[in-house]
Amino acid sequence: MTKLSRRQFGMAGLALAGVSLAGALPALAQQLKGGKLRVAVLSELANYDPQQLSTVNFHVIKNLYDSLIEYTPEGKPEPSLATEWTIAPDKKSVTLKLRSGVTFHSGTPFKADSVLATLQKGADPKRGKNVFATMSIVKDWSAPDDATVTINFKAPVPERQILDLLQFLLPIDPKGIDTVETVPAGTGPYTLVNRAVGQSLTLKANPKYWREKQPIVQDLVFTVFSEDASASAALESGAVDIVYNGSSRSAVRLKNAGFQVFAGPGPLVQVFRINSTRGPFRNKAFRQAFNHLMDRASILRVGYAGLGKVVALPWAPASPAYDESYNATYAYDLEKAKKLIAASGLSADEIKNWKLLVNGSDESSVAISQIVQGSLQKIGIPVELDMRQGAEYVTALLGGDFAATFGAVGNVQKFPSRVATNSIYRTSGNPVLKDPHPHPDYVAAIARVDAASGGAAEVKAAYDNLNKVMVDEAFGIPTNSYDVGLIVASDKIGGITLDIDNLFVARTIGFK
């Protein structure tokens, strides 16, 4: 096995030997002051499980947990709980060296057993949640000692895919792994003080945190606002210091009003999610009609103030699977949509026997759902909007209790098969489509991408095949990329760290 130096990493995306980040701080961090940081959020969190990488959990994950490795905003891997890692020449294994002197919030020492327990949970289709699909490449794992872990793969794996796996794994305290949904069990910079469901979440600085001089702010309070306008008003009045994950439209207005706005490198793609096990959506031709029922330009303009890109595939432009030609092939075209609906053979009553689930707490979701409702009305399909608020909507979304709804997906700038970490695109244990997966061609296409470790032609063919299968099966209809995790802050705030996934990182933030 070979160990690669930082210089060898370069632009090739290779693994590197670790360099400690314990003292790494933003340039102004030494000048920043602590205190209480008040953050407005627009969604109630689902739970404390770091393997549920849902947008509603984005504000807490990196504050309660640490990853094995981190990415810089440019996608460069850096050490975290793993101080170094070595990828075997045959790309069939990776060996990690773990950081010493780290403890979980419970006081349990961070050792190899916690990584093994986290891997075990991630590989379980019932418990692995968003991590389960990423674990599909893993054969087994072992720990020769408390500071070393080796992960073996089923076949040679592209190096970027290995790094993505390490970045996605956030070790969980083995003692708390069975109760992690309700009780945090991480090593992160903050610990839980109190949660008032639907109202607020209070965290305090971890006094034994391993990163030197972090976190800066000692008290971290998240307040849940039911409306974007209310959160913005709280920032303008000084009631909060930051609005996290508000709307693009509000961010533009607040920036013009003099507030700081930070957009990270990890966009989401908005997807019209279809439950293909229900009603008329069991019919493929009917689903395919929605490829042409999406007025993507209007959705981007009205829902996201034009900030983003129109897309017909679930990739950001930075993804190696991105193919802009699909935007033209599957453009908004009501005549094509009507022909596909006619070809479905469904009756007039069947095609309108469903409701569109809408996140009533999110102004963008309401607006874009109304655009789709209008397009359907134009071709004679009246559809009712099923408005649900806050936790009620999240429960329906993650439980698959809908016929169709808009819901964003992440990991769209990383290795393409990472799309399967999102609930609608999971290949197994899919909470919407259930098991056995109703779209075996999609499952096979994801497996083909994972296995394509050969030349450029083989890799491109695997990506092309996945794209064709996605639009053919049409259980998810992408519309646009957009900035998620936007941070709008008062001018008193400094030390903002941008995360590759746009998760909220509070440990470097302080007051000027």
* Strand numbers in spatial order across the main sheet: 8-9-10-1-11-18-12
Number of helices: 15
Distance between the termini: 47 Å
Structural class: alpha+beta
CATH topology of the domain at 268-482: Dipeptide-binding Protein, domain 3
Radius of gyration over alpha carbons? 23 Å
* CATH structural architecture of the domain at 268-482: Roll
Gross geometry: globular
| Low confidence ranges | 1-29
Q: Care to count the β-strands?
A: 20
Q: What's the pLDDT, averaged over the residues? A: 91
Largest sheet entry = 7 strands, mixed
* The CATH class of the domain at 268-482: Alpha Beta
Considering the protein shown, what is the CATH homologous superfamily of the domain at 268-482?
Dipeptide-binding Protein, Domain 3
Helix content: 25-40%
Proportion in β-strands: 15-25%
Subcellular location: Periplasm
Keywords: Signal, Transport
Pfam family, one: SBP_bac_5
Protein name: Peptide/nickel transport system substrate-binding protein/glutathione transport system substrate-binding protein
Topology:
Blueprint: H1 6-9, E1 36-41, H2 61-64, E2 69-71, E3 77-79, E4 82-87, E5 93-98, H3 112-122, E6 138-145, E7 148-153, H4 159-168, E8 190-196, E9 200-205, E10 219-224, H5 228-237, E11 242-244, H6 248-256, E12 260-262, E13 268-274, H7 284-289, H8 296-304, H9 325-329, H10 334-344, H11 348-351, E14 355-359, H12 363-378, E15 384-388, H13 390-399, E16 404-409, H14 440-451, H15 456-473, E17 476-482, E18 487-489, E19 493-494, E20 510-511
Parallel strand pairs: 1-10, 1-11, 14-15, 14-16
Antiparallel strand pairs: 2-3, 4-5, 5-7, 6-7, 8-9, 9-10, 11-18, 12-18, 13-16, 13-17, 19-20
Helix pairs in contact: 8-12, 14-15
